[in-house]
Amino acid sequence: MIMKKNLIGQKFGRLTVISEYGRYKKKQVQWLCKCECGNTVIATTGSLNSGNTTSCGCYNRSLLAKDLTNKVFGKLTAIKVVGRNKHKSLIWECLCECGNKCYPTSNSLLSGNTKSCGCVRRKKNSEKMKKANFTHGKTDTRLYNIWCAMKGRCYRHTNDHYSSYGERGIEVCNEWKNDFQSFYDWAINNGYNENLTIDRIDNNKGYSPENCQWLSSFENTRKQRRTVFISVDGKCCSVSGWAKIIGVGNCTIRLFYNRFGEEMTQKAIHDFLKTKDKTLLYVRNKRK
C-alpha cells in the first residue's frame, strides 16, 4: 500500500498547506491551503507538486490587471485598454509594426500567444505558397485540385468521402502522395484532358499508375452503376437479388460493398444466412 504524503505546513508558491480536506473523485488527496493574500483555496496533491497551483488566483489577477501601456510584445505595442471580454480579461488596443491595429487580451500578450496582428503568419503562408508555385507552378490548375482531392478522400478524416476511401484502406501510392509533379507527368502521358475524371480500375485498390485511368463523367457514372454479382455459398445473385433475399434496401448492400469490398460483403451475407440477423449489415456499415 502506497503511504500518503503529509503536506501540512509545506509551502507551494504563495500557498501554505493548513489541513487535509478530503479526496478529489475518491482518488487524489485534497488540501486546504492559505494564500499570502489571506484567501483560502482547495488544491490536490498533484496540482501542488506539479506547480500548477501556486496561489488562490490573486497572482494571475495581479498580472492581468498590470498596466501594459507602451509595453512591447513582439511586434505589438500596447496603447490603451478598450474593454473586457466575457471572461473579464482586459482587452488592449495594440499597434503592430506593420501599421495595423489588433485587440488581444492581457493574458494573450503576457503569455506570448499574441505577438503580431497576424502579419507574421500571413507572410509565412505567402512564402509557403510562393515556394509551392516555384516548385511546379501549377497550384491553380485543375490537375492540382484533383491531386489534392484524391489525397483528401484517402487521408483527411473530416472529408465527406473518407468513409468510402481512407476508412476502407484506399491509399495513394508513394510515387504520387508527396510528389505532384510525378502525378502530373503520368496524367499528361496517359490521355488527360479537361473533360476527363480520374478512375480506379479496381475499386478495392488504391490510386497508382497501374490502377488508374481517365474517363469521361458519363463513363465513370456508368461504371459505378454497373451490375455487381456476389457469390455466397455457391449461390450467385446481384446486389438487388441479395437485398430482396435479406430484406434490406439495395443501397444498404451496395454501400457495404463499396466500403468494404467483395470479400467482406460475402462474409456478411454468409453470416446472415446462418443467423438471419440482418442488423449485421447495418452495424458494420455504421461510421466509426
Structure description:
With 288 residues, the chain is of the alpha+beta class. Helices cover 39% and strands 22% of the residues. A hairpin with a 3-residue loop joins strand 2 and strand 3. It starts with 10 loop residues before the first strand and ends with a helix. Mean pLDDT is 84; it is low at 284-288.
Question: Can you give me a brief rundown of this structure?
Answer:
This protein has 288 residues and is an alpha+beta fold.
Low-pLDDT regions: 284-288
Fraction of helical residues? 25-40%
Q: Given the structure, what is the number of helices?
A: 11
Overall pLDDT, averaged?
Answer: 84
Determine the structural class based on helices, strands and strand pairing. Answer: alpha+beta
Query: What would you report as the Rg, rounded to the nearest angstrom?
Result: 31 Å
Amount of beta strand: 15-25%
Net shape: flat
Q: Classify the oligomer.
A: single chain
State the end-to-end CA separation.
41 Å
| Number of separate strands | 12
Largest beta-sheet characterization: 4 strands, antiparallel
* H/E element sequence: EEEEHHEEEEHHHHHEEHEEHHH
Spatial sequence of strands, sheet with the most strands:
1-2-3-4
Q: Which secondary structure elements does this structure contain, and how are they paired or packed?
A:
Layout (H helix, E strand, L loop, with lengths): L10 E2 L2 E10 L3 E8 L4 E5 H6 L7 H7 L7 E2 L2 E9 L5 E7 L4 E2 L3 H5 L8 H18 L5 H14 L18 H4 L2 H10 L6 E5 L11 E5 H8 L4 E4 L2 E4 H8 L3 H26 L3 H7 L3
Antiparallel strand pairs: 1-2, 2-3, 3-4, 5-6, 6-7, 7-8, 9-10, 11-12
